[in-house]
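Q: Joint fold for the lines below.
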Amino acid sequence: MSPTPMELRDIAKIVRRDVLTMLLEAGSGHAGGSLSSVDILVALYWEVMRVRPDRPTWEERDRLVLSKAHAAPALYAALARRGYFDVKDLLTFRKLHTKLQGFPDMHKTPGIDASVGSPGQGLSIANGIAMAAKRDGRQHRIYCLMGDGEAHEGQVWEAGMTAAHHKLDNVCAIIDRNRMMGDGGTEDIVALSPLEDKWRTFNWHVVEIDGHNVEQLTAAFSEAASVKGQPTVVIARTVKGKGVPFMENKAEWHDRKLTEDLYEEAMKALA
Amino acid sequence: MAEMGLVDFHHSVVETEATNRGYERGLIELAERGTDIIVMDADLAGSSGTSGFRKRFPDRFLDIGLCEQDMIGTAAGLSLAGKCVFVTTHGMLAAGKAWDIIRSTICYGSLNVNICGADAGLSAGAAGGSRQSLEDVAVMRTLPGMTVIVPTDAVEARKATVAAARTPGPVYIRFAAARVPIITTNLTPFTIGQAGVYRQGDDASVLSNGVMLYEALKAARLLEDEGLGVRVINCHTVKPLDRAIVNRAAVETGALVTAEEGSTIGGLGGAVAEALAQSSRPTPIKIVGIEDRFGESGEHEQLLSHFGLTSRDIASAVREVMSRKRSPEGQDAEAATDRV
Ligand SMILES: Cc1ncc(C[n+]2csc(CCOP(=O)(O)OP(=O)(O)O)c2C)c(N)n1
Ligand SMILES: [Mg+2]
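A: Joint structure:
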């Protein structure tokens, strides 16, 4: 039985709290971009993706490529809560000998479908998996979660052309459109707008939604699954640092170090 | 060695600072002196050391977003139009992602673009293997005309930045985001291409740079207690390598260790080995570095120890390489054949 939207919201809150605890414990890491992706990941892993946490390498599973690899804390927390590994492991994030490396390592962490590091590279990987699936007649879908600042990278657009040209309708890209990057706002540094039009002219099916609304997210993903002959990009309007008022829309919270005091304050906001 | 103006850290508490900060000071100094400088960054100003510059000289700063390749190409154009350009990104992004553009646009045209690799070596620490850059020195060194510098501390980083602006052709300078010991002072001589002998000794030499130079000096101190005189050389410029000093160390001490915070393939160790193997006096050498693998998450200091990059590791390397030394009579030491 699938969880109700209410339950999904509770799960998202738990995942957000996990993210903060991991970042406090690690003493470094990316808060803003992790928090903005949480609802997307919860919708995917609890509602949309066909996965078996007890068999992370099951051939028929849907895949996720975390192209915005710095959101690793959000993905790790989601995987742990979904049952891929022990929640206690989250406390080892970024520490020597951990299986939860700063950036995802598929050989160390159950549930990671591709090792990733630099933003900009994930969509190409997703395309490759999707092409193989088509050749092998497999039905699984491939999701690729990207940042919006990430869309500055040229490789994103190379991959965009490839996916459309090869009609990779089993690929669904999600752009976490929080309008922020590391040094400030995307539109101030190098503008991305009109982002939807860019993807449309690249021959993608474009869906734009509120990226913190699980129902809208779920609906967008099923729309994507029904589109034939074209890849879909879900442009998810989000707030960087979502859920923690003092982090929301603040560029410095891209990767600022969390202190005990601020952690307490943040956890109160997510109580 | 008083004339080198080094910090006497054996007898006082050593101060530390990220070498990125020295980069920042060097950039500000250049602008203050009226250099027609443009500093570029690719959305990393918060950590790379350019944010202080951006604050002082906003008109001379350009954040190009996550467009490392476009940044290098744009820098080429700015340089062609006479600007003194510094581009900034992670070491592994400059050396990796932008390498072809550096090669085919900057180096092919011998352009005066200074490329700064921030957060290099293991200094990205907890971020782990994908972000740490262990290969940058090796791949940058292969590019025709590229100067490659690895400053040892923030003081030297400032000098290297200022000197790079005056050096014709492309320059790659590697910086650390982690705090590393300050061992030089404003009085310590620095010239691109000229290595510095920081400690005398005739039994073996350690050639090093970056944070490993501090470890090398500590290793020499450990070995002094065992009665060994170890020469320590700052090879801040990996390319062009100071062959005169390297050869002299080979001839006079007969055993060399190199120590660097990077891959054992193709970096400082590779440069020294290439030079020595083709010299009139091939000499036993031991390369201390990270062996053909990625880094991983951990604190910078923990990682140095995890990967065998401490003064103790350097001291063992010195003992090992000395066991392979040719005896004065020209007889090889007994162990020569079975140790590699
Ligand atoms: C190729 C590359 N460029 C830059 C970085 C450093 N970096 C990581 S994330 C990031 C900002 C990304 O912004 P965005 O994609 O909008 O992510 P979000 O806002 O979701 O955190 C930067 C500059 C990197 N690791 N690799
Ligand atoms: Mg963003």
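Q: Anything notable?
A: The two ends of chain B are 33 Å apart (CA to CA). Residues A 32-33, 36, 68, 70, 118-120, 147-150, 176, 178, 180-182, 240, 254; B 43-44, 66, 68, 93, 97 surround thiamine diphosphate (ligand 1) (CB under 6 Å).
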